[in-house]
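--- STAGE predict ---
source: upstream dedup step, 1 unique chain passed
mode: sequence only
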Amino acid sequence: MSAHPLYGALRPVTPLASVLLAPNPSPMTLEGTNTWVLRAPGVEECVVVDPGEDDPGHLADVAAHGPVALVLITHRHHDHAGGARRFAELTGAPVRALDPSLVLGSEALGEGEVVAAAGVELRVIGSPGHTSDSVSFLLDGPDTDPVVLTGDTILGRGTTVIAHPDGQLGPYLESLRRLADLPPGTAVLPGHGPELPDAPGVAAAYLAHREERLEQVRSALTTLGAGASARAVVELVYADVDRALWPAAELSVRAQLEHLRSS
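--- STAGE serialize ---
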């Protein structure tokens, strides 16, 4: 894949949020990981959400837009958090996440907590399912429309993987319902792909997609037998999907099978 023209460039998205695209494209990460830089107008410091992989070039590009007051992590996967320790050493900023093992120089995040830094306030929304430690951040301001930073809970294009066994379908469905209850017009700032204009609408579409997939898995079990393997279900249900994505689809199917067999 050729270099994306936005690699290394800070792109303003809202009055409070800009994004740097990490150069780690893949079928799973789309064009790359979105590293979000948040600050109120006129404020020098910033909050960085998901510094990305341990890529010295990308981390240096992000640090150049500091000083960094705080680093927040949406979830533990390396393409979001792998570079957090190096970035903390580079900037001197504390790192906060739901997973205590990712926390540096501060404390773990809490559900419903309001994090204030760089002139912005972010409300922590627990959104497990993709991983057990996934969180989203609701960012609102007096002169801007609300946005929610969703990590991999909602992507800018396509749908996310339930990374079983750490990820679980039941909590993921509940997380989508929580995001569907956000105010209409709340935009999505995702961990991968383009921003989206309406979080509640996207969350509702994700819920419908998950219900459709569950019905397809139920049908596959009728055809293949109740004890069918996740791989066999993938080959039937995801026959029209790029085979490069089948390993990820198998994780989601494992989560779906566990959900169906335990309900």
